[in-house]
Write a structure and sequence with these properties.
Distance between the termini: 42 Å
CATH architecture: 2-Layer Sandwich
Order of helices and strands: EEEHEEHHEH
Shape: elongated
Helix content: 25-40%
CATH topology: Alpha-Beta Plaits
Number of helices: 4
């Protein structure tokens, strides 16, 4: 059975994020070989950051990552590293394909989507907190 929570030195946590990267100008440049290579790159980068790539997939103009991470991770820096490393390696390895589409060394837009995700909704958490027993005077 898979652990629901991760354990740190002084913490127990379950942090997951859904991340989406979109190609620059929403160009349809991602093929199957590139998608497979992106999966490897994201897996390697997650390992280096001591994160877990839970799920990865994409279409011709964007990719989705579902990751688990620990509280010490600065999510914006981690995401920037994912984008930088993947863009650099993909542009190098698929130069002949991408040079036909992009005149500058780009792959992703400057922005990204990220949403925290977990096993319960905000409403369920709200009800749980509201129903806590308060100490008596």
């Amino acid at each position: 059975m898979e652990e629901l929570y991760d354990k740190g030195f002084r913490s127990v946590y379950s942090l997951s994020a859904h991340i989406v990267f979109v190609t620059k100008y929403r160009k349809k440049v991602i093929n199957q070989a590139m998608l497979s290579r992106l999966a490897e790159i994201f897996q390697d980068t997650c390992t280096k950051w001591e994160c877990t790539l839970v799920e990865f997939n994409g279409e011709v103009d964007h990719v989705h990552l579902l990751i688990r991470y620990h509280p010490q991770i600065e999510l914006s820096k981690f995401i920037a590293n994912l984008k930088t490393v993947s863009s650099r390696l993909i542009r190098k390895e698929f130069e002949s394909l991408l040079s036909k589409v992009y005149t500058k060394p780009v792959l992703w837009t400057g922005s990204y989507f990220v949403a925290s995700c977990g096993g319960v909704t905000v409403e369920q958490l709200k009800r749980y907190v509201e129903n806590q027993s308060t100490p008596e005077q």
